[in-house]
Amino acid sequence: MKDHLNVSSSRDRRGFLKSSAAAGLFSIVPSSYVLGQASGEAPPSEKVNVAAIGIGNQGKSNIRSLVGSGICNIVALCDVDLKGEHTQEAQAAHPNAKCYTDFRKMFDEMADEIDAVLVATADHAHFCQAMLAMSLGKPVYVQKPLAHTFGQCQRLMDMAEKTGLATQMGNQGHSGGNYFQFKAWTEAGVIKDVTRITAHMNNPRRWHGWGASVTDYPSEPLPEGVDWDTWTCTGPEHPYSKKLHPAEWRSWYDYGSGAFGDWGPHILDTAHRFLKLGLPTKIEAVKRDQPNDLVYPQASTIRFHFPEREGMPACDVTWYDGTNNRPEVEPELGVEVQGPGKLIYGKDLTFRGGSHSSSLTVVPNEKFMDIRKDLPRISGKNSDHFKNFLLGVKGEERTRSPFSVSGELTQVFSLGIIAQRLGGTLEFDPATKQFVGNAAAQALLDPAPRAGWEQYYTM
After folding, report:
1. Rounded Cα distance, 342 and 326, in Å
2. What is the CATH code of the structural domain delimited by 175-379+409-457?
3. Is 11's pLDDT higher than 80?
4. Cα angle: 344, vertex 181, 303; to 5 degrees
5. Integer Cα distance of 436 and 426 in angstroms
6. How far apart are CA 79 and CA 99, in angstroms?
7. Backbone torsions φ then ψ of 301, nearest 5 degrees
8. pLDDT score at 284
9. 359-384 per-position pLDDT tens digit
10. CB neighbour class for 211 (10 Å; exposed up to 12, middle 13-18, buried from 19)
């Protein structure tokens, strides 16, 4: 895995700041500056100047978390809908930040003032915004899923490797208790010989109830001030409607990634990483409830077959979404499936987990009681996901969900989404990263961008 430290760990903090200032990475305050920041707040010379692209809903939450780290200064706010109600809070909270509707203009005008970039836009727009930022030497924090297609993920991974920049995908549980527990339990041999995983997300989704009734994209008058061309970005062109903006885009294949791309990064991330699952050889659409060419199914069951690797056995991962589409659980485990979560079946032990940073438990409980004293203890205070990214930008920590890790994870979800869309069984070659004998699936791996946006694919 690529080392995401930007400076030698032996370099003292002041030396790093001097070199960063010389390179234009951080702004240095005058010597007359009087420290008056709140407790735990870094002086301005030690803060990372962040530009946020996408400032409503999830973006607004991400901005709060970055600022809450005490080492972030928001210098730019970019959103295609600066007049929208959902973007007002972020603008009010950062009155000194420059505001833009087009991320390209933002970089043209103030790239030298930006140290790092937050991308919290719709799934289909992540790619071009992150690619442009990295091409300008800016570390990026990109909301999950990392990108909208398999090919976009590959390009982001390649760019991150080429530039050596700090990168982070926004599956924040990857800096929480489940991350450190899964890592320790795997290294200690508690989690081993896993042959089967079931993962589920059974909460209602925005498109539930639409079903087969959706036959085309709706059209409504474009609200004043909305930059629809920039919102559409590399994606296919469809008219504006409230069924797309500001919050419904996840329902549509052309723009979102459904329940799988939304919740998979919070449920399967640690299993994928520490069990070294890589890419599957086969993906099966076991169930599709009311499949539709435009929006995601009302429920789906997708099964992945991962081959043997590095001394570990082949493993099947089955994903369930839909309010009533839940995996059957062996009665002897004594658990009830509810909400988002997973069951991990090893040779000797079975583990139950939730989502995000939720820790694993051994089931049934009697088995846990027998071994609890021998389980590794997880101790120590660690940075959260947002501070981990900022410290990665400053060269003080390695980011925990860099594109070298989160890119391949997102590619797995991209393959699952193609199975949701097409149905049937798809054969995949992890070595060539190509589908075998299926032209329709192959075409969805890396669709061409909308005319006028091709430059992001050749950076």
Report:
1. 11
2. 3.30.360
3. no
4. 25
5. 8
6. 8
7. -125, 120
8. 98
9. 999 999 999 999 999 999 887 789 99
10. middle
The 3-state DSSP composition of the chain as helix, strand, coil percent (nearest 5) reads 35, 15, 45
Write out the two tokens for 272. 């994928």
Q: Which two tokens stand for residue 296?
A: 């995601």
Percent of the chain scored above 70 by pLDDT? 91
Return the pLDDT at 44: 80
H-run or E-run covering 345: strand 341-345
Q: Which CATH class is domain 13-172+389-404?
A: alpha beta
Task: Encode pLDDT of 216-226 as tens digits.
Answer: 999 999 999 99
pLDDT, tens only, 105-115: 999 999 999 99
Question: For residues 418, 444, 147 and 151, what is the CA-based torsion angle, rounded to 10 degrees?
Answer: 130
| 8 A C-beta contact, residue 195 and residue 343 | no
Question: What distance in Å separates the CA atoms of residue 331 and residue 399, rounded to the nearest whole number?
Answer: 40
Q: Which residues, listed in sequence order, are joined to residue 96 by a DSSP beta bridge? A: none
Cβ atoms of 327 and 343 within 8 Å: the answer is yes
- Give the start-to-end residue ranges of the domains of the chain: 13-172+389-404, 175-379+409-457
Q: What is the pLDDT of residue 438?
A: 98
Is 442 exposed, middle or buried (CB count within 10 Å of its CB: 0-12, 13-18, 19+)?
Answer: middle
| Mean pLDDT, residues 158-171 taken together | 98
Tens of pLDDT along 115-133? Answer: 999 999 999 999 999 999 9
What pTM value is reported for the model?
0.91
Residue 78: its H or E element: strand 72-78
CA-nearest of 127, 117, 128 to 62 is: 117
Query: What's the rounded Cα separation, in Å, for the pair 127 and 233?
Result: 9
> Rounded to whole angstroms, how far apart are CA atoms 389 and 380?
19
Tell me the three state secondary structure of residue 64: helix
